[in-house]
UniProtKB/TrEMBL annotation:
Annotated organism of origin: Scylla paramamosain (Mud crab)
Membrane topology of the entry: Lipid-anchor
A cellular component term, taken from the record's GO annotations: plasma membrane
Pfam family for this entry, one: Hydrolase_4
UniProt EC number: 3.1.2.22
Keyword field: Cell membrane, Hydrolase, Lipoprotein, Membrane, Palmitate
InterPro entries xrefs: AB_hydrolase_fold (IPR029058), Hydrolase_4 (IPR022742)
Protein name, entry field: palmitoyl-protein hydrolase
Matches recorded under PANTHER family: ALPHA/BETA HYDROLASE DOMAIN-CONTAINING PROTEIN (PTHR12277), PROTEIN ABHD13 (PTHR12277:SF81)
Subcellular location: Cell membrane; Endomembrane system
GO terms assigned for molecular function: palmitoyl-(protein) hydrolase activity
């Protein structure tokens, strides 16, 4: 069951329960880093170097659109950040929290491609323990990581909250929902969201006190417009999670239910890009 051993299952029902170990086992799968940062002579600026596993789809010239740096979280971890300048006249910048089995290197080509197509710049970061970010992945670190990314985006680039779109994918929706429940932004996009950690494993309607990533309890606090995207054949985070999250959002817009799509292929369907363009270029500017 999602790679859990008998010992892990027992941890769920011991007293007191041990949700943090279950969450780490279930939610975080850091890949081998696909990139590195190289500091200049002063140590104040860094350049991005991608390995073959990053599968960069563009030229070296286009890679110059990417700026990378480190920032530090309130929990003391130094995490990697990436700013992708996709469009010189972009109104919005997307703060993107990626899925659990990727890092910034894996995502770099996708960011440049997506941002160019929907006329948005993209800012992203690696969770603690991912890529060249220090520390270990955990639920507490996840929330601290996105807080640090948010403040870096606001202070380093001077982007106003109303021009920031929070985008979370899979486990990244837990970080996105947590931040969006505390700050009003231009919009929120939740791609394959989960209601909570326990609900991914078991069919329960209750949020237990030891549950991890209790996003379903936080979404009613989001005051920004929310677009939910989910594949109807998702066998990792069931489609019912997307439906429930959408229903609990006070300012939910028309969702995108991608018929036949699973957990990792929603982006391959034409309606994905069409819905994002409509949301960003039409609905948010009117």
């Amino acid at each position: 069951m999602n790679g859990l051993s008998i010992r892990d299952i027992c941890c769920l029902f011991c007293w007191p329960p041990c949700p943090s170990s279950i969450a780490a086992k279930m939610a975080f799968i850091p890949p081998e880093p696909t990139y590195s940062f190289t500091p200049d002579e002063t140590g104040s600026r860094h350049s991005l170097h991608l390995t073959d596993k990053a599968e960069w789809q563009f030229t070296d010239k286009e890679k110059e659109a990417i700026e990378v740096f480190y920032t530090r979280t309130t929990r003391g971890n130094k995490i990697a950040c990436m700013f992708v300048r996709c469009s010189p006249n972009a109104r919005f910048c997307i703060l993107f929290s990626h899925g659990n089995a990727a890092d910034l290197g894996h995502m770099s080509s996708f960011y440049l491609s997506l941002g160019t197509r929907i006329n948005c710049n993209i800012f992203s970061y690696d969770y603690s323990g991912y890529g060249v970010s220090a520390g270990k992945p955990s639920e507490k670190n996840l929330y601290s990581d996105i807080d640090a990314a948010w403040h870096a985006l606001r202070t380093r680039y001077g982007i106003s909250p109303e021009n920031i779109i929070l985008y979370g994918q899979s486990i990244g929706t837990a970080a996105t929902i947590d931040l969006a429940s505390r700050y009003e932004v231009g919009a929120v996009i939740l791609h394959s969201p989960l209601m909570s950690g326990i609900r991914v494993l078991f069919n329960t309607k209750r949020t237990w006190f030891f549950d991890a990533f209790p996003s379903i309890e936080k979404v009613p606090k989001i005051t920004s417009p929310v677009l939910v995207i989910h594949g109807t054949e998702d066998n990792v985070v069931d489609f019912s999670h997307g439906l429930a999250i959408h229903e609990r959002c006070p300012r939910a817009v028309e969702p995108l239910w991608v018929e036949g799509a699973g957990h990792n292929d929603v982006e391959l369907y034409s309606q994905y890009l069409e819905r994002l363009k409509q949301f960003v270029s039409v609905e948010l500017v009117n």
